[in-house]
Amino acid sequence: MQNRGFAKFFNRNEMLTDTGLGGGDSWHQGRVGGRADVQLSERDTLSLMGDDYAGQSRSTIYTGYPIPQRGDLLRQHAEVGGGYGLGRWTRTLSERSEFTLSAYLNHE
Question: How is the chain split into domains, by residue range?
Answer without folding.
Answer: 2-107
